[in-house]
Design brief:
- By secondary structure, the protein is α/β, with parallel strands linked by helices.
- It folds into 2 domains: 84 residues, Urease, subunit C, domain 1; 316 residues, Metal-dependent hydrolases (TIM Barrel).
- The protein has 13 helices and 20 strands.
- Helix 7 runs parallel beside helix 8.
- The longest helix is centred in the middle third of the chain and has 18 residues.
- The chain is globular and about 70 Å long.
- The two termini are 35 Å apart.
- The model has no long low-confidence stretch (mean pLDDT 97).
Length: 456
Amino acid sequence: MSVLDLAIRGGTVVGAEGERSADVGIADGRIAAVADELEAPARVEVDAAALHVLPGAIDAHVHLNEPGRAHWEGFETGTRALAAGGTTTAVDMPLNAHPPTVDAVAFDRKRLAAERCALVDFALWGGLVPGRLDEMEELAARGVVGFKAFMADSGMADFPMADDLTLYEGMRRAAAVGRIVAVHAESQAITSALAARARAQGRTGVRDYLASRPAVAEVEAVGRALLLAEETGCAVHVVHVSTGRAVALVAAARARGVDASCETCPHYLVLTEEDAETLGAVAKCAPPLRPAREPAALWRAVEDGTLTFVASDHSPAPFALKEGADAFAAWGGISGCQSLLALLLDEGHHRRAVPLERITEVAAGAVARRLRLPRKGRLEVGADADLVLVDLSAETVLTADDLLYRHRHSPYVGRTLRVRIARTLVRGTTVFADGRIASPPVGRLVTPEPKETTTP
């Protein structure tokens, strides 16, 4: 009988079919067995009694800002926060690094920066920006999961928005190399004009900022992106949708044969425009937080499967960029990757009775399939042993001291969460346990499988 590297015994395992009491055996970084009672001995034993064993979360939308802006965040601090939150793979966006990931040289620099200190596995998005479409083929060859495009001002001068022609031609190129295009879908014409009008009139409060980015700006841009994807045959993914209408547009396009998907974020599921006003710049994002009817609509879409997955859109910044009375001038990004899974379990499972298998699907399984990440996102024999052990009976209050970000601010500080992340494993290595980092960096680059091998 072969000896396992590690055995997790007595936990409640959550798989695609639901929950069951089982042991999990790990060998050579992969799941070797899932059984009622493992008979094989193991070099290391973990007692998971009273804990749930889930696939580690895959956060498809993080900005770790390295190289170039590690003073905002970096792979060292960012991936430690991810591990503490039960995320085992993160997909880093091409901006706010400097230079952004728009060519092979920038890709190589970012990969080296990550490999030096990443605690969790990582994949990389490439950029779809004007004047750099010729770089897309070599980025695909390097292993980007897809290409990110902004349909409105990105806030970064070195990552300009994609005009309609750039987006159309970029989608054609992405389709040719078998990569997905992720779009930040807001109408630049609507948002820029409303913002300019408000500022010219001296209206710079939180409510003025919210009013400058109305839901119609998102819905219009989503429709335009879907039309271009349908015309080019490109797979399209709409990031951080904040409205039920946007989700419905994506679902309707998918029903007529467009290869379309969308994600939302925890802040759109648990916060509202009232929270934006109360919390101020720490809760500023784009699209902005919405009225309470929108989180309810988004949760319905999570439950019925029309909303593909949930990602944090972790977009950190120094405290100085989140201060001041001018809501338009403050940095528009939320620090939230450490809280992704806990918020889904607290708000989704405990408060709304969303089944755990559905939570793991939107946090891991659907992400892995959509981005074609091999051996990720599932608790099955042969998959990478990326696991998180959670105590669903615990109750914790998130404090700033708990945060492992470079800058310890988040709109979730002070929130009571009915879950505790007890242990996080990346390919069988415990990277976080009992409130502490438990391993040196083990993160590796993950690249997508060829399209023809994608699991339906």
